[in-house]
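Example record

One chain of 667 residues, shown exactly as stored in the release files.
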Amino acid sequence: MSHTHQFTILLSQRVLLFGLLALSFVAHGATIREISSPDGKTKLSVNIDKTVSYAISYDGAPLLAPSQIDLVLGNEGKLSDRLNKPKVTTRSVNEVIVSPVPEKRKHIPDVYNEISFRFSAPFRLTFRVYNDGAAYRIETFFKDSIIVKNELAAFNFPDNPHLYFPEVVRRGNQDQFHTSFEEPYQIKTLDSVLAKNLCFTPVLLAAGNSPKIIITESDLESYPGMFLTGTGKSTLLGAFAPYPKAEKVLAGEYSQVYVSEREDFIAKTKGTRAFPWRVILIAPEDRMLPENDLVYRLASPSRVPDPSWITPRKSTEEWIITENLFNVPFKSGINTETYKYYIDFAKQFGFEQVLMDAGWSDNNDLFKITPSINMEEIVAYAKSKQIKLGMWTLAMTLDKQMEPALDQFNKWGVDFIMTDFIDRDDQKAVDFYHKTAQACANHKIMLMFHGAFKPAGFNRTYPHALTREAVLGSEYNIWSDKATPDHNLLLPFIRMTSGPMDYEPGLLSNGTKSSFRPIAENVMSFGTRTQQLAMFVVYESPIQLFSGNPSQGMMEPDFMSLLGSIPTTWDTTMVLDAKLSDYIVTARKKGNDWFIGAMNDLTPRTLNVSLDFLKQHKYDATICEDGINADRYAADYKLISQAMASTDKLQIKMAPGGGFLIRLKAK
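Predicted structure tokens for this chain:
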């Protein structure tokens, strides 16, 4: 019997029971328990009988209908085979996590109620309920290693919400589980999403006046990531890449390993372990989603004993504009002179790093330096300017040359690398992330992943893994019109809930809806200059890569000085106003200073925001807003300096595809 058919039967048996869960805890031998969030608004009901299911309500209204959980093992059977009366334990937790790399806030309240079911068979099932979401995970306690054939993670809804989802586009020479996790969001009613639609998480569900829901995961280790598929009904089902049986190398400029044959199971792993958290974020107001850090809270604590060497920063990045400098006395390109120019630019405008992106070496051999590059000269020049260097690597090459390459980076004083073109999240790919992060930690090298799946809490476990891609970002402006303002206004509400993202903002050529064109070398954004600036505040990434052209930036020193002053980590974050896919106003504090960034879709709008949350009374304000002609010339902006007070109202005017940024320095 298929999981879908089993679930349909389960649903028909459980619908009547859903309304009785809060009243009855014993029925026909079943174990039925209910647990509430600390504020009492969210209730999670668990029913253990011949199967395990759970349901969630918010303010008394059904949010998630009874949804089945199971884990199917090899020789050990499945979780639901032995659901004898479990031992039930509960606890309440009220703690504070101190983040060594605070993307949203330094001090993170970790407050929840928990219920665990320990079966005499070697399984435990734990649920946690927070004020802003709920989660569950399975644990096993087998002495020997186990094979996981499949996992049943069902999410059934009492109505037919709209689903906001990115769908895998199958590549011609690879199976459906190969993807760079960079697709635009589609919006459909849930019953129109079918089994053939493979969605990568996070996804968002919106139904009428009900709270918005995000489905994702946390604490992913030695296990494949969770995709979701539709069923043609109001149900989503987890889907997982089977374990690689055979792999092949797709050789080329960006060579990578792909799976040519898969096993009939999804993981082979330790018998005693915890599996990933299945996470549901709950947001009665849209602004609560970009503030939500539940995925971080659920992840395993840091495995870096002393994080003092981890130094978040701003960096340049030259790949998107293909080193296309102008007003310089040398031929620009991948060469020593160009990188020295980038170092000078970084020093002038407050950037701490220059990234040497793809091309500094043979992609397939990190020790075969491009002839036009003199690494010793670049290293010495960067050191003289107190600018750090970061290096791009191809994942397949880094995997082969890991220790000697990291040793060489240490000798050069390089303390940050990017590794790229993984494009998988099966168990072997996930293991590569952990292996690479641990190796980099041993060498005190920070890193980010490109061609990558979502962070899923990895940044808590390995705080030196500062960010990762898993987003359709600036580079898409080279060849497509997909990075629209509407797309940009979905990212904080969906993708960013899973952790920091490397969008690579800062393009200094900008286009309107009528003037934007995908174009290489002189790459422009779809949206205004000020929207690109606001991304440095609205989008979270402890290392921000500026993708604009330094030669253009040199001509606009006031603008670049403001951009260069924006921190990349924050003491606290507040989303002052937001509407999914329409606009967002985010306020972040660092020390005594505040930065407020706002972004807008293609509808011009004016917002009025109170500043009464400010602790100091008086501030020196620097404002960058869309210029009066930004609706036709998207690079038009206006810089204003003025005094402001906490009693003032802040008026935010944004052009179509526009933005706004204010820096408030306490007097």
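Notes: The two ends are 69 Å apart (CA to CA).
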